[in-house]
Design brief:
242 residues, mainly alpha, Serine Threonine Protein Phosphatase 5, Tetratricopeptide repeat, 15 helices
């Protein structure tokens, strides 16, 4: 935590941060720490705490925007995971989202924050539009992780924004960087599973990508096409329509 930021925080928040870090350290195990590397998660500061235990600690803390900001500034991987469950979505600011996205340094923190916090904010769609063209690998992944999360969780938005999301997917499908292409694939598949109409549009995109001369686009397209035309997905969408 930076000294300037820390000095402005109430003593109660500083003490709560220290208690929370101590709780995380108590829950850490060598196995969970080793699993970070096993799952391709690189973090400069990590205790090694399972997501189940992170969520358990989050329940004891409740929602607290100021605490979430302070936990993020510690730089600890698990403390940053905690912010996904502790922050108050309605109080998350645009500047905060941009700053945190620039701090993303692995897929675990990127996806968890997008899936459990950012997609619940009123700013989520604006950030998809802003971040999808960014050069930074994890900021760009965040755009598509956020789009995938919205496809799964946003029950009120109509099809048009998701159709526009498919255009972003197609535009980014030649980005060969591992974490970007997997984020793009995730968004395409979840949009295509949202409802029958979007399934038709997503399958069209997947078919075009499958025949692309670009190997990354073909990989994304073929994987999505296989899933979105599978009996399991087609059957579920038919039942939902009926």
């Amino acid at each position: 935590m930076s000294p300037s930021r820390s000095s402005k925080e109430p003593a109660e928040i500083r003490e709560q941060v220290q208690r929370t870090l101590a709780a995380l350290e108590r829950k850490s195990t060598k196995r969970d720490h080793d699993n970070l590397a096993r799952f391709g998660i690189t973090a400069a500061r990590a205790y090694g705490v399972s997501i189940a235990n992170v969520q358990l600690i989050a329940k004891s803390l409740g929602r607290n925007h100021a605490l979430a900001l302070a936990l993020w500034d510690t730089g600890w991987y698990e403390a940053r995971l905690l912010t996904s469950f502790v922050d108050e979505p309605e109080r998350v600011t645009s500047a905060q989202m941009d700053r945190w996205s620039r701090d993303f340094d692995n897929w675990g923190i990127c996806d968890t924050v997008c899936f459990h916090l950012f997609d619940r904010t009123p700013l989520a769609w604006k950030k998809v539009a802003l971040w999808h063209g960014k050069r930074d690998e994890f900021v760009r992944r965040a755009a598509f992780a956020l789009l995938a999360s919205l496809a799964l969780h946003d029950k009120r938005t109509g099809d048009e924004p998701f159709e526009k999301g498919l255009a972003l997917v197609e535009r980014a499908a030649t980005d060969e960087r591992n974490f970007v292409k997997k984020g793009v694939s995730w968004a395409l598949r979840l949009i295509g599973r949202r409802n029958p109409a979007l399934n038709i549009e997503a399958v069209k995109v997947a078919r075009r990508l499958s025949s692309s001369p670009d190997p990354t686009a073909r990989w994304i397209g073929r994987g999505a096409l296989k899933e979105l035309t599978s009996p399991a997905v087609v059957g579920r969408l038919r039942r939902a329509r009926a």
